[in-house]
Amino acid sequence: MTAVAEKPASNGFADAQTHNPANTAYKAPRIFPTVAAASIGFSIVQLDVTVVNVAIPALGHSFDSTVHGLQWVVDAYTLSFASLLLSSGSLADRLGSKRLFGYGLALFLLASLGCALAPNLATLIVARVVQGAAAALILPTSLSLITHACAGHAASRVKAVSWWSATGGLISAAGPTLGGLLIDHFGWRAIFLINLPVCVLTLWLTYRFVRESTRSASRRLDPAGQLVAIVTLGVLTASIIGSGAYGWSDPWVWGGLVSAALLGVAFVALERRHPAPMLPLAFFRIPGFPGAVVVGALSNLAFYGLIFSLSLYFQRSQGYTATQAGMALFPLTIIMLANIASAKLSVRFGFRTTIVVGLCASAIGYLSLGLLLGRSAYPALVPGLALMAIGGGIAIPALTAFLLGHVEAGQSGIASAILNTGRQVGAAIGVALLGALVSGNAQAIAAGASHAFLFATGLLVVCILLTLRQK
Q1: Which residue range is the domain that position 37 belongs to?
Q2: Where are the alpha helices (DSSP H) in 26-66?
Q3: How many CB atoms lie within 10 A of CB 295?
Q4: Is residue 89 part of a domain?
Q5: Integer Cα distance of 374 and 102 in angstroms
Q6: What is the CATH number of the domain that holds 350?
Q7: Whether the Cβ atoms of residue 407 and residue 415 lie closer than 8 Å to each other
């Protein structure tokens, strides 16, 4: 599910640019290598969010780890990704998007190799942290490179961003299926080794064809805020994961949650005083903006937490192989078609209606799966899985456009980054929170997965109510 978008240009601007002969250099054939490099880079970032889910049982067997330890394999990547995403935009302005994109790809390549060669779970988790940091460098710069290459030609920019978004969404949804095939045929290390040739190809495209963006040495960083954000998210996630292992009444769990809350207060205080904060708090005073971020975070919490739960359910409760589990999740790839439909629905019915329709579809899918898991054969689950993907695919692009409609055009970049950060934080908490429910024997996992889906249904009801309140 992708969430980065930009405001479309007015028809007059697009038409003027299209008919201006001076803009022929910006047509699709000249920007194809840039679009290809940016889209491939974005795709590997999205792929490594989901591909690891079907590897969880194999990793547990290889490292003799519990579910609670394995949750960190997913969340180490997502947390590092989320906590560094805002700062990477400022860093790109200082160093140049092409340079930072290349650095991110090189770091992702090395981190993927580290994951593939990891001798134990702790080493794998550290390598996943580095992977997430690299992803934070790749994601915002990939879109920046497209925008820079298409400068002055709105029609090409819209088309390029559409390809970029659709490619990432499809690869993300196909991650479990691809991961299952690789694991059963080559072992779990293959899901990381496959990144190496892809990174090499993208690096070659980048340095051979992509132009550097304009640099701004005046952009300031926020190291104190960045550090506190990392610690806050880490402590919060560790506490939620710990609740599954030790229970919510454990003093370490409660202590961690209280510490995370205090660190969150400290973070807000730092951001208020910093002249160039990584998280501009003024955005949260814009009507409609906070609600959109909350809906994005809660919907991602549900979606990615449930992907993790389903992977364990299919393999540890139903006895599926990794390939079978990946194929069982294949209906999620319909999300790409839903992304395309979202734009048409938004134009015809408006953003709020489209968001609500998408959230309702997902909620129905979640509810049906919650009632059927552990009680029905796989064919009965397919409609729920399809609705799960269709709903998210419709709602998220419309949500992004809805949020961007509440800010000035010059603020769309940071607004998108805030939404993406909220969604990634939601994904990390979702894996920690819902993943804590799917542990124990086969019967307990089935019951836990059912409870996870019913809980997620409740979250989407909250999202629907929040959206209906927006004007």
Answers
A1: 27-213
A2: 28-50, 56-63
A3: 30
A4: yes
A5: 46
A6: 1.20.1250.20
A7: yes
Same domain, 340 and 467: yes
Per-residue pLDDT tens digits for 195-221: 999 999 999 999 888 877 666 555 677
Exposed e or buried b per residue across 404-434, where buried means at least 16 C-beta atoms within 10 angstroms of its C-beta: bebbeeebbbbbbbbbbbbbbbbbbbbbbbb
User: CA–CA separation, 445 vs 65, rounded Å?
Assistant: 16
Residue after which a domain boundary falls, among 157, 179, 213? 213
Tens digits of residue pLDDT in 257-291: 999 999 999 999 998 988 878 888 888 888 888 99
For the record, the structure tokens of 384 come out as 């729920």
Distance separating alpha carbons of residues 347 and 333, to the nearest angstrom: 24
Q: Which structure tokens are listed for 15?
A: 């038409």
Contact (CB, 8 A) for 2 and 165: yes
CB of 173 within 8 A of CB of 332?
yes
Domain count, the chain: 3
Q: Count other C-beta atoms under 10 Å from residue 19's C-beta.
A: 8
CB 276 within 8 A of CB 263: no
H helices of 350-381, in order, are 351-372
Q: Are 133 and 107 in contact (CB under 8 A)?
A: yes
What global pTM score does this model have? 0.81
Place of tokens 């980048």: 206
